[in-house]
From TrEMBL, chain A:
Residues 94-296 form the ABC transmembrane type-1 domain. InterPro entries: BPD_transp_1_N, MetI-like, MetI-like_sf. Its main location: membrane. This is Peptide/nickel transport system permease protein. It is found in: Cell membrane. It comes from Nonomuraea rubra.
Automatic annotation (TrEMBL), chain B:
This is Peptide/nickel transport system substrate-binding protein. It comes from Nonomuraea rubra. GO terms for biological process: peptide transport. GO terms for molecular function: peptide transmembrane transporter activity. Residues 85-400 form the Solute-binding protein family domain. The keyword Signal applies. Keywords: Signal.
Length: 312, 509
């Protein structure tokens, strides 16, 4: 298949696979929305009636196809628990989560680069601490990062409030002071994680003969980075960016819950715990779509990778 | 800075408007007062993601009940002392058989679209609750709603399935009245409550504006913002950092730290929550009364109270609804008696002890540590208890009313509600397998007793009997802890549904 057709085809296949996996995962959860609505206090007859009302008694493949048809026609359905349209639930929350995600990337990407550089090419005294920060940062759960940030920047220095009750009805970006801690909570682990993945690639590139050659020829470091290093790591970096952004769309749950923000992550986690399957599926599919779109973009704009595969 | 600037300019505009207004009206009216009472911001337990709009089904979070109580009128409300107070319903009078009740509603309530609230709307709403029995724990189970009828615009007749003297109580709290025919709650339907929801809040909060046409006492606040915040720590921190004015359900550890802080007020509602220890009467070894008694005698209630609730509460006396006005108040406090407990174990043939699994979860704070401590205490009478911590999200479908030995949860529920849900023979949620026929017969007799004092005594006897014979051990009651900023007043007292009616909150102190 020629390149221009192959990339979108792969994206469609990936999305289809993701939708099946998401559907099967939600189907495998113990219990269902009827159990939750009954609160443990409903009898078997009442539960059966609830299940029939919700369409939960239909066979798995029928429910899947029904949901898929809905998503493809732009109607993901209504929440089983609240009866509210899922499109509206997602749209209301997307602003907060996207703001958090974009800001986290804005902070996280330069930090990733700095950490990776420090670990691979930094001065000798810096490499060990940088590597330690990368390993620790990538391993720390978000909740711990959040607690440490609150203790340090909020309780200790009084710089930011420890929770972030965004003013009702105003866009998230209107209060940067309220976003600082959630954004840092998200940005620090992704920077460490990103640096952990990228330092290998950078290490590979900088030992390549043509980079050595350029160094020996006395080219300025900035030129070397721009002309030889960046193109080679562009593809893994873009792919990493795509996966990170996709992860952020649904992975802001911990930060959102701890800081009291109503976003997509909080929606996803609550929907999982209430077995609100159509909501879970829609949010998860949205996150998958962001990842796939990013990967597709990475494929399309990855000269380094194509050059590499072209080489024998 | 941006918002501060905006706020400042808004204040200037308000001040100018007030000055202009004041010049024509009575001199000396204080502009400070009218601005101070502006907006009350409440962080309530709940999740913004499963905030429901249908008032008659499952209300998953406390914030849902609060929002409904601002939007809609209810028929009756529980008072601070647990007694029933009129709200939309002004009177409820039975016939001689106690099976037909004339309920009179106020004639002066109107929905936000201008329609009057009629008896037909109230009966429609009750019927809708009846249809949603699976989602509201069968709250209307005592009524024959098909046989009930509308008499005129302000009166309807409620028919009960059996003689039932506590109809006022049965209509408490959640009987939200919506316009007849409302069935699609995807969008808010008109309510007749003290406040009206606006669409200003987005996903973060729901902003309510005062309904100046409401029949009741004029709410001091012109706006109330309700925010569902799942994390108790976050609710408390929001209050402490001045982002909200009232935080519902805060952790005991944090409440303790704030004692002595003059900027905040700690509100305590005694007896709001309990985690009953459930023993199924149809399962070994709990089918033997002596074993159940041994468990109740082996518990160190004070230690449990101090450890699980940090002392914010009181020790339990195995009464399932100790704050219900019908609960007997004069029973001797049950205390730890290990010798007697061991003797009972021997008599039950368990001198060598017994292996048990106690199920618990992390759904509510302290539930898991309570189980661990109970296991340690029961070890002293030879019970080898393994604690199984189950996932919070399936606990009430997989463990509740299914396992023979677990920690349950009750929050401010009246006795007759517990009876309906958990003490009715044959009910799928009869968690202790309590099916004492004479007890049930006495319950029927108590509910058919028209004399209030007499009936209270009968209901009290039933609770005392359950305490000694039944499958519950109630080791402690915890206070519900709220934090408010110092000037805030008007927070309702009382537990359960009583705490949801926040329309009279005021920042003026």
């Amino acid at each position: 298949m020629p390149w221009p057709a192959r990339v979108p085809a792969r994206a469609v296949l990936l999305m289809a696979a993701a939708s099946v996996v998401i559907f099967l995962c939600t189907a495998a959860l113990p219990g269902d929305a009827a159990d939750v609505l009954g609160g443990g206090r409903a009898g078997p007859g009442e539960l059966a009636r609830l299940r029939a009302e919700q369409g939960l008694d239909r066979p798995l493949h029928v429910r899947y196809l029904d949901w898929l048809a809905g998503v493809l026609t732009g109607d993901p359905g209504v929440s089983l628990i609240t009866g509210r349209p899922i499109g509206e639930l997602v749209a209301q929350r997307a602003g907060v989560t996207l703001t958090l995600a974009v800001l986290a990337l804005a902070v996280g990407v330069p930090l990733t680069a700095a950490l990776a550089w420090a670990a691979v090419r930094g001065p000798g005294w810096l490499r060990h601490p940088a590597n330690a920060v990368i390993v620790a940062g990538a391993a720390l759960p978000q909740a711990v990062v959040a607690a440490a940030l609150v203790a340090w920047l909020s309780a200790g220095w009084g710089l930011f409030p420890p929770v972030s009750m965004l003013p009702a009805g105003e866009p998230a970006w209107s209060r940067p002071d309220l976003l600082a801690l959630p954004v840092l909570t998200l940005a620090l682990p992704i920077a460490a994680y990103g640096a952990a993945l990228l330092r290998g690639a950078i290490g590979d590139v900088v030992t390549r003969p043509y980079v050595r050659d350029a160094e020996l020829r006395g080219l300025p470091p900035a030129t070397i980075v721009l002309r030889y290093v960046l193109p080679m790591i562009a593809a893994p970096a873009t792919r990493l960016l795509a996966v990170t952004l996709g992860g952020l769309v649904a992975g802001t749950a911990v930060a959102e819950t701890l800081f009291g923000l109503a976003g997509l992550g909080e929606l996803l986690v609550t929907a999982i715990s209430t077995r609100d399957v159509p909501v879970v599926q829609s949010v998860a599919l949205l996150a998958a779509a962001v990842v796939v779109a990013g990967l597709t973009a990475a494929d399309a704009a990855a000269p380094g990778r194509r050059r590499e595969t072209a080489r024998p | 800075m941006h918002t501060q600037l905006r706020r400042r300019s808004a204040a200037v505009v308000t001040a100018v408007a007030l000055l202009a207004g004041c010049s024509g009206t009575a001199p000396g009216s204080s502009p400070a007062k009218s601005t101070a009472t502006g907006t009350v911001r409440y962080a309530a337990p709940g999740s913004p993601s499963n905030a429901v709009t249908d008032p008659h089904g499952l209300l998953p979070g406390e914030s849902d009940v609060v929002r409904m109580a601002l939007t809609y009128d209810v028929l009756t409300v529980p008072g601070a002392d647990g007694s029933t107070k009129p709200r939309l319903a002004t009177a409820w009078r039975p016939d001689a058989t106690l099976t037909r009740w004339r309920v009179t509603i106020r004639g002066d309530a109107t929905f936000s679209d201008g329609r009057p609230v009629r008896a037909a709307d109230a009966l429609f709403s009750l019927r809708r609750m009846g249809r949603k029995a699976a989602e509201n724990f069968g709250r209307m189970a005592m009524f024959d709603l098909d046989a009930s009828t509308t008499i005129d615009d302000t009166t309807f007749e409620l028919v009960t399935r059996k003689p039932y003297a506590e109809v006022g109580k049965a209509l408490e709290g959640a009987t939200f009245v919506v316009p007849e025919g409302s069935d699609d709650f995807g969008k808010p339907v008109p309510g007749s409550g003290p406040f009206r929801p606006t669409d200003k809040g987005g996903a973060q909060a729901v902003v309510y504006e005062r309904n100046d046409d409401w029949w009741g006492p004029k709410p001091p606040a012109s706006t109330i913002e309700v925010r569902a915040v799942p994390d108790p720590q976050a609710r408390a921190q929001a209050l402490l950092s001045g982002q909200v004015d009232l935080a519902g359900g805060v952790p005991a550890t944090l409440a303790r730290q704030q004692e002595g802080n003059s900027a905040v007020r700690l509100l305590r509602r005694p007896g709001a929550t309990l985690y009953p220890l459930v023993m199924r009467l149809d399962t070994k070894p709990f089918d033997d009364l002596r074993v159940r008694q041994a468990v109740r005698l082996a518990l160190d209630r004070q230690q449990l109270l101090d450890t699980v609730f940090l002392g914010y509460g009181e020790i339990g006396n195995d009464l399932i609804t100790p704050k219900d006005p019908t609960s007997p108040a004069t029973l001797r406090q049950r205390t730890r008696d290990l010798a007697q407990a061991r003797k009972l174990m021997s008599e039950a043939g368990l001198a060598d002890g017994v292996d048990l699994t106690l199920h618990t979860t992390t759904a509510y704070p302290g539930m898991d540590s309570a189980a661990t401590l109970i296991a340690q205490q029961l070890a002293e009478i030879g019970m080898r208890v393994k604690v199984a911590v189950e996932p919070a999200d399936t606990y009430f479908s997989a463990v509740y009313a299914r396992k023979p030995f677990y920690l349950s949860y009750l929050g401010g529920i009246p006795f007759l509600d517990v009876v309906r849900v958990a003490l009715t023979p044959g009910s799928p949620t009869n968690e202790t397998a309590w099916q004492d026929r004479t007890w049930s017969a006495k319950l029927g007799k108590a509910l058919a007793e028209p004399d209030d004092t007499e009936r209270r005594a009968l209901l009290g006897d039933l609770q005392a009997e359950l305490r000694d014979q039944g499958g519950y051990a109630i080791w402690a009651l915890s206070d519900r802890l709220d934090l408010a900023r110092a000037g805030l007043s008007g927070v309702p007292e009382g537990i359960g549904f009583a705490s949801a009616f926040i329309d009279q909150v005021s920042l003026d102190g």
